[in-house]
Design brief:
Blueprint lengths: L1 H11 L1 E5 L4 H13 L4 E5 L7 H16 L4 E5 L4 H10 L3 E3 L5 H9 L3 E3 L1 E2 L2 H10 L4 E3 L2 H4 L1 H8 L7 E4 L7 H7 L3 E4 L1 H4 L1 H5 L3 H16 L2
Parallel strand pairs: 1-2, 1-9, 2-3, 3-4, 4-5, 6-7, 7-8, 8-9
Helix pairs in contact: 2-3, 2-12, 3-4
Length: 217
Amino acid sequence: MSEKTSEFIIENGIVTICRKLYGEDLLNLAKALYEGGIKLIEVTFDQSDADCIKKTSDAIAMLVANLGDKMLFGAGTVLTLDQVKAAADAGATYIISPNVDPAIIRYTKELGLTSIPGAMTPTEIVNAHQYGADIVKVFPAGYLGIKYVKDIKGPISHIPLLAAGGINEENIGEFFSSGYLGFGVSGRLTEGKLIKEKNFQEFTERAKAFVKALKEA
């Protein structure tokens, strides 16, 4: 299953990162993003919340139950094996971490899920790939810039990279052209003010802008 999931992620490109967002607001956001052409959502574990395993797994299960035939959902900020298991049981198809942890990568693969650990340096990226990662998340991509990925893609062009941090409608095309195959996006597609106002239509319009910019890159 992980190979098909990886292909779906690379084909669609944009993964919306949802932090501290649950219940009806999360479901409405997911529906709005889907209407705009985005088919991937990452629900993160809030490591500062003692109840994060239940909250995140419940959120993923809700999304899968309502939109699982249209979108793929994954778990983010995954730091423990228990979190991998909870996400898998809830219906997540990919596991995203902020770091390179061999145990997390191997367990993710054992469960048939796509592994996307976070790395920054060439050494971390290659290590993650050798441990079994399907895609490696480069963070903070926006801070590192376009020249950074162009330089490191020379020797490690065989490893699929996903950019996270600082990606927006204006620069996603440039990041794609530089060698990234996927993009983790939060701010513009999860803005708290809009969610509080229940202005989910704006998220649909923003999603359309992201999808259009990526297609035209």
